[in-house]
Design a protein that fits this description.
This protein is of the alpha+beta class and about 350 residues long. It is about 55% helix and about 10% strand. The longest helix has about 35 residues, at about 205-240.
Length: about 350
Amino acid sequence: MSQTPASDNGIFLWMTYQAMTRAGLDCAAIFASIGMPDEPPDQSERRINSPQQRFWAAAQRVSGDPDIGLHIGELMPPFRGQVLEYLFLSSPTFGDGLQRALRYNRLMTDALQLQLRVESGVAILAGLEHPERHYLECATTLVLRFLQQVSDGEFRPDRVMFSHTRGASAEAYQRVYGCPVVLGAEEGAIHFDAALLARSSLAAEPELLRVHETLAARKLEDLARQDFLHTVEQALGGLLEQGDASLDALAERLGRTPRSLRSELSALGTSFKEVLAGYRERLARRLLARTQEPIDQIIYLTGFSEPAAFTRAFKRWTGETPTAIFDPADRPFSAGDQKRHGLCTA
C-alpha cells in the first residue's frame, strides 16, 4: 500500500545492537531514543524505518563518532540464514541470484529500492539512497559483505557512490568497503565487474530453488497482509480520536464498502471486532506504560465512552485493572513524545 511506511526486517536492528554492544557503546541511551529497551531486539519483529534519523543522531551523540554508521557496519555480525541467502545460493549464476534477491529485497527492507543494470561491462547496483547517512553507510556494509559471502569471496566492488557530500575519510571507506567511495554522486550505487554476473553458483540446485522461491513469495504475501492491517489500524487511530470507530466509518476512510472490508479482513483470518479490540489493547498498554497522560485522556484516545467500559476491557485483556499494573509516576514520555516515537502505531 502506498500509505504504508518503509520498514526493515528485525534482523537489521538486532545486528546493529550486537555491533554497538561490541563497540562498547551505551545501548540503553541509544535505543531509548526510539522508545526501546536496552536488550537485543526481537529479530522477528519488523520495524518502521522512519526513526532511523533519530536513532543514528543519538548514536553519534553518545559515541562522539561522526562516522558512526560506517564503523558500526564494520562490526556487524554476518548476515546468515535468511531466505535471500538461500535464493542466491541455489540460483544457477551470481547474476540470477542477484536478480532474485532484488525481486524479494523487501523481505529485508523497502527503505532501499535497489536495481541492477549493466553499462559498458560495469554492473551497477543502484538505489543506495536514504536521508540518514549513517543508516545508509551501515546498510551498504551489510550489502557488500553479503555479496562477498554468496560469491565465496569473489565479489569485489570497484567503487561505491553516495549522493551525500560529507562523509568519512577516503582511508576509512577503503578499509571498510575495500574500494574507493565517491561522494556527491548523481546516484547512490555499487559498481563492480559485470563478468561476475555469469559466475556459476557451486550450490545451485533447481529443486531447492523452487522451494526457496515459493517460501520467499509466501513471505511477501505475508508482508502485504501486514501492510493492509497496518493501514486499517492507522485509520482506526484517527477514527478513535473522532469518536466514530465503526465498520462503516472505517470502510469509508479506506475507500471500500463495509461488505468488501469485512471480506478482506475475513480472508486474513480476522474481523473488524478483533482488529479494533487488538488495536485498543496495544494502544492502551503503550499509553499507560510510556506516557504521563491521565487515565481519562487515555480513555478518550482509545475510544471508550466512559472509565467503567475502559476498565472492564482492560481487565478482560490483562486480568488486572489499569491502575493495578501501571504507576503513573513511572511514565517517561509525554503524549507529544508518544506520537514522535511512533508508539501509537501498531
